[in-house]
Write a structure and sequence with these properties.
Strand order of the largest sheet: 1-2-3
Largest sheet: 3 strands, antiparallel
Strand content: 5-15%
Radius of gyration: 25 Å
Number of helices: 7
Oligomer: single chain
Distance between the termini: 82 Å
Helix content: 40-55%
Length: about 230
């Protein structure tokens, strides 16, 4: 018969330690440091320019999960293979509708890489080296986002009803119509799914952020022609 004395033996529960204060404290410190770095990258650098809450939430949660996976399985002798496997798994993530854009995939790669580094850094690596690595990544992102590439190319999806203008030979007419109705200068247009039954098409318009200050108002906007009111 199993008794409590057998279950709780020498501070263990089913051969697992109930508490290792030094390891627990290390987990708390490393997790706090990692979540701070992830928040700086995703909230201050990414979200402040794109306003994409869906990707912000995704990056944050993936960073948390990857960190705990790596940290708690650190003693398993598959560190390198495990890390590369995570890159392979998350590196090929695709949402059901559209593939993740290159810029968002880059941030995903950064979040995974930073979480792995912060979780698997062993005693051969000092905290100063780990801090410099994280700050270096943040600095490079900031330089390219805010200094070198001041004109951030953004994209919005529009449900467009004038499908007769989506023909390649009427590109300039399509662009002129969209610019007149949105009030922004469009850099590029991509035609997505076309619904001939509803005479509508999903169109992605690309523009530089500095040209408009209220881009969030366009999120999910459906444009209709004046003829629809007849």
């Amino acid at each position: 018969m199993i008794t409590l004395s057998k279950i709780f033996k020498d501070g263990e529960l089913f051969n697992m330690d109930l508490m290792k204060w030094s390891d627990f404290l290390e987990l708390v410190i490393r997790f706090s440091f990692n979540i701070l770095i992830i928040l700086v990258i995703t909230r201050l650098l990414y979200y402040s320019t794109t306003k994409r809450k869906d990707y912000f939430f995704t990056y944050l949660m993936i960073g948390v999960i990857v960190f705990f996976l790596c940290f708690l399985l650190e003693n398993v002798k598959v560190e390198l293979g495990f890390a590369l496997g995570l890159f392979a798994i998350f590196g090929i993530i695709r949402y059901r509708t559209n593939p993740i854009p290159i810029r968002e995939m880059t941030y995903l790669f950064i979040v995974i890489g930073v979480s792995i580094v912060n979780a698997l850094a062993n005693k051969k690596i000092s905290y100063a080296e780990m801090l410099f690595t994280n700050l270096g990544i943040i600095a490079v992102i900031w330089l390219f986002e805010r200094v070198f590439f001041l004109r951030n190319l953004s994209v919005k999806e529009i449900l467009y009803e004038k499908i007769d203008l989506i023909k390649p030979d009427r590109y300039e007419e399509l662009k002129a119509d969209l610019e007149e109705r949105t009030g922004i200068t469009i850099s590029k247009i991509e035609i997505g799914k076309i619904d001939f039954l509803r005479d509508a098409a999903k169109i992605s318009i690309y523009y530089f952020e500095h040209q408009i200050n209220q881009t969030d108002l366009m999120e999910g906007t459906k444009y209709r022609s004046d003829d629809d009111d007849d």
